[in-house]
Design a protein that fits this description.
about 230 residues; mainly beta; 15-stranded mixed sheet; globular; disordered C terminus
């Protein structure tokens, strides 16, 4: 499995394919993933220097129960990377944080709680990829994706995530080792990328970029993360 050598310098761009709303302007569908020169402490806090400068993804769209509807609560996400890891920090705003359940469960068993999930199509074949999900209580779930929309729950990656519930809602901070992702040996890489959020008490699901359950395909409609060596 190829990995990035420490001598490589990388630049990343996250590009989306969200559709324009008939009632408003087209949402922003690209944002850079910023290189960090300092280690990121995975603790669920936005204290690392990179989270003060990385651009913020905010154009989340509801896909359930109302496809294409506005998101009930604001969600903000940022992406960064270094020679070894891909990092994502997500702030899930919620005006009633006391109602966010932190009930625990075994790994790969989804508790009846909110959820944040990132999806990566690292091979960029629009047919395969990986999902990394977490609950407010820190319960981890991961899957390998094959044939576009099939999940293999027996796959267990080695990755880290930390969550926190606070006065603004809750957060999740992911560190995905590049060694866990499949991609060809090449100085240039394009990854698919998506973020999903579930708000359990409203049975609401939102995503970036916009996900349309009425359309055929899942993996093939992700964003693209372009990674190139300099």
């Amino acid at each position: 499995m190829p990995t990035f050598a420490p001598t490589f310098a990388l630049a990343c761009l996250l590009q989306g394919t969200a559709a324009a709303s008939p009632a408003g302007p087209t949402p922003a569908t690209s944002t850079p993933a910023v290189r960090t020169s300092e280690p990121v402490v995975i603790d669920g806090r936005p204290d690392d220097a990179i989270w003060r400068t990385a651009p913020v993804i905010v154009d989340f769209t509801q896909f359930s129960p109302v496809e294409g509807g506005p998101a009930r609560f604001k969600t903000e996400a940022q992406a960064a990377f270094d020679d070894h890891n891909f990092y994502v920090f997500i702030r899930a705003h919620d005006p009633e944080p006391a109602k966010i359940s932190t009930v625990l469960a075994r790994r790969d068993v989804r508790p009846p709680t909110d959820q944040l999930k990132i999806v990566i199509d690292s091979f960029h074949d629009r047919r395969s990829g990986f999902e990394f999900a977490v609950s407010p209580g820190g319960v981890k779930r991961d899957y390998a994706i094959y044939d576009d929309n099939n999940e293999d729950g027996s796959w267990d990656g080695v990755w880290d995530v930390a969550t926190r519930v606070d006065s603004l809602g809750w957060t999740a901070e992911f560190a995905i080792p590049l060694s866990q992702l499949r991609y060809p040996s090449s100085p240039t890489h394009t990854f698919g990328f998506a973020i999903w959020r579930d708000i359990e008490r409203y049975k609401e699901r939102v995503s970036w970029p916009a996900y349309r359950p009425s359309q055929i395909g899942f993996e093939g409609r992700y964003a693209g993360q372009e990674t190139r060596s300099l």
